[in-house]
Amino acid sequence: MPRSDCHPQMAAFLDLIAYAEGTKGLGDDGYNKLVNPAGFFQDYREHPDVLVRVNPTLHSTAAGRYQFLSRHWRHYQAALGLPDFGPVSQDTWAIQLIRERKALDDVIKGRIPQAISKCANIWASLPGAGYGQREHKLADLLAKFTEFGGVLA
């Protein structure tokens, strides 16, 4: 399924986030993925808002390629005029979060360590996130970024 039309550096960074979140290549390239250990959702009209028991102490409504929480859906749907929870809307939302963290310029210019650091509080799988979940190593993510077509500064 094609991603939104965006800068090649941003496309590589979105792939990096999907890889880190464990959704890349699954189902509709992660766009229909519920948080692990759950499977997939079928309806893109809305965020699926399925509460999943991830482990004995963690429950999550994370869904989609970038594992968005349902509690943020209505805000971003209205703010960005998202028609649905489909792939283009998910990409648009992810790019907006990157913009809000002031990491957009870092991504475009290949300053990926800085972009990852700025976005770590959004995506638990990024190094330094501090959510007590598995965090990827920066070196591994930088290698993935270039594998996905990105160019480092």
Produce the secondary structure layout.
Blueprint: H1 8-21, E1 52-55, E2 58-60, H2 73-80, H3 87-100, H4 104-108, H5 112-119, H6 138-147
Antiparallel strand pairs: 1-2
Helix pairs in contact: 1-6
Strand content: under 5%
Assembly state (oligomeric): single chain
Shape: globular
Name of the CATH class:
Mainly Alpha
Percent helix among the residues?
A: 25-40%
Overall tally of structural domains:
1
Total strands: the figure is 2
CATH topology category name:
Lysozyme
**Distance N terminus to C terminus?**
29 Å
Secondary structure category: mainly alpha
- Average pLDDT rating: 93
- Please tell me how large the radius of gyration is: 14 Å
For the report, how would you describe the main beta sheet? 2 strands, antiparallel
Features:
153 residues; mainly alpha; Lysozyme; two-stranded antiparallel sheet; 6 helices; 2 strands; 39% helix; globular
In words, what does this structure look like?
The chain has helices at about 10-20, 75-80, 85-100, 105-110, 110-120, 140-145; strands spanning about 50-55, 60. It has about 150 residues and is mainly α. It has one domain (about 10-145): Lysozyme (Orthogonal Bundle), CATH 1.10.530.10. The chain has a two-stranded antiparallel ribbon. A hairpin with a 2-residue loop joins strand 1 (about 50-55) and strand 2. Helix 1 (about 10-20) packs across helix 6 (about 140-145). The two termini are about 30 Å apart.
